[in-house]
Specification:
With 221 residues, this protein is an alpha+beta fold. It is 22% helix and 28% strand. It contains three helices and twelve strands, in the order E-E-E-E-E-E-H-E-E-H-H-E-E-E-E. The protein has a six-stranded antiparallel beta sheet, with helices on one face. A two-stranded antiparallel ribbon has the order 5-6. A hairpin with a 3-residue loop joins strand 2 (46-54) and strand 3. The longest helix is centred in the middle third of the chain and has 21 residues, at 98-118. The chain is globular and about 50 Å long. The model has no long low-confidence stretch (mean pLDDT 88).
């Protein structure tokens, strides 16, 4: 399979070393040995592709939903220091003792993140969650794949005009209004967690996509 499918655009690349459709070269991304191998299948449905991000608590992959025939993003719960995994393996190994207890605590928080995000699955300014489940002794969130830069990345490249800065700020506040309206406080709004999309020419307004509800808490006041 690895020699026939591009794990970036998920089109047939035949025996080409570089994908003729998107230019992706296998092995050119920053994947690590402990990450799921491209071509791994979850739930007999999701085909894992290239890694597109990883941090202290998770790994995000580009993937293909073979049922709905579309590209998605898969976030895998992988807390550094609490688990390990050998190259080519699917299941994570969970450390024992206090680390196992901490893993279970963080896993519950990860699943709560999925439930929080799923509340906004029809909103255009919050990344949609399509599915979440436990497998391989860990858990996964299946999300909308956003083909747009993070605010963090754009700030490194250029300065925003007053119109852009104000437009994106208003769009962010509108998204947070929906979150707070459901008695959820995000608690981790930063340039790392905001995708920015081009100005919508039809609606004439700026669009953002808010992600990562891992620190969110329900609030009753």
């Amino acid at each position: 399979m690895a020699g026939k499918i591009c794990f970036w655009c998920f089109k047939a690349r035949g025996n080409h070393a570089v994908c003729p459709h998107c230019g992706y070269e296998p092995g050119s991304d920053s994947g690590q040995a402990y990450q799921l191998s491209p071509g791994t299948i979850l739930q007999k449905r999701y085909v894992i592709g290239a890694s597109i991000g990883f941090g202290g608590f998770g790994i995000t992959y580009k993937a293909f939903d073979a049922m709905l025939r579309m590209i998605v993003a898969v976030k895998e719960f992988y807390p550094a220091g609490l688990v390990n995994r050998g190259g080519g393996e699917k299941k994570v190994g969970i450390f024992s003792g206090e680390k196992k207890a901490e893993f279970q605590k963080q896993l519950a928080r990860f699943l709560e993140e999925a439930r929080n995000m799923a509340l906004f699955s029809k909103e255009q300014d919050i990344v949609n969650v399509f599915d979440f489940f436990q497998e391989n002794q860990t858990a996964y969130i299946i999300m909308e794949y956003v083909d747009a830069p993070l605010l963090k990345e754009e700030l490194k490249k250029r300065r925003f005009s007053q119109e852009e800065a104000g437009g994106y700020m208003l769009a962010l506040l509108e998204a947070l209004g929906k979150v707070h309206g459901n008695h959820i406080i995000h608690k981790d709004i930063s340039p790392d967690n905001i995708y920015i999309l081009p100005l919508d020419s039809q609606l004439e307004h700026f669009v953002v996509k808010v992600i990562d509800f891992g620190a969110a808490r329900l609030s009753d006041g």
